[in-house]
Amino acid sequence: MKKQVDKVNQSPAAERVFDAIHTVMHLYRSGRSQAFREDARGITHMESRVLDYFSRHPGATLSDLAAHSGRDKAQLTRLVKGLREHGDLESKEDIKDRRSVRLQLSAQGEVLQRDLRKTGALILERAVVGLSESQCEDLVTLLKNIQSNLESER
Questions:
Q1: Could you tell me which residue ranges the HTH marR-type domain spans (predicted)?
Q2: Tens of pLDDT along 74-102?
Q3: Which of 38, 43, 59, 85 could connect to 102 by a Cys-Cys bridge, CB 3.0–4.6 Å?
C-alpha cells in the first residue's frame, strides 16, 4: 500500500497566507462597518452588500441575490424589505412573470451607494499605502492563482 503524505499539515506557509488573508478581510470589513455606523443613515455591512448587488444588477430578483450571495433567502427578504421601507430600493413587477419582483436602486439609494463606495474606496486606499502599482498587480495575480486552485478543487 502506497504511503499517503499529509500535505496540509506540512505547509505552515499556507496557514500564514490564509491567516493574513483572513486578518486583512476582517480589518477591511470592520473599518467599513465602523464607517457605516458613524454615518447618519446607520447602514449595515449586509445592507451595503445588497445595495451594491442591485447597483451592479439592476432589475435582478431576490432569488438572483440569494443565488449570488449564498445567503438565506429569509434573511435577505428582511434586508430588502428594510431597504425598500427606507426608500433605497424600488421594486417593479416582472412583465413576463407577475409572481416575480424586480429590484433596483431608487434615486436615494443611488446617492447612498455612491457615498458607500467613496467610503469603501478611502479604506482600500489606506490599505495599500506603501505598495507600488506593480506590487498591487503582483498581489492580485497571486490571489487569483489561489482562487483558481480552490475553484479547481470543487
A1: 14-148
A2: 999 999 999 999 999 999 887 777 778 99
A3: 59
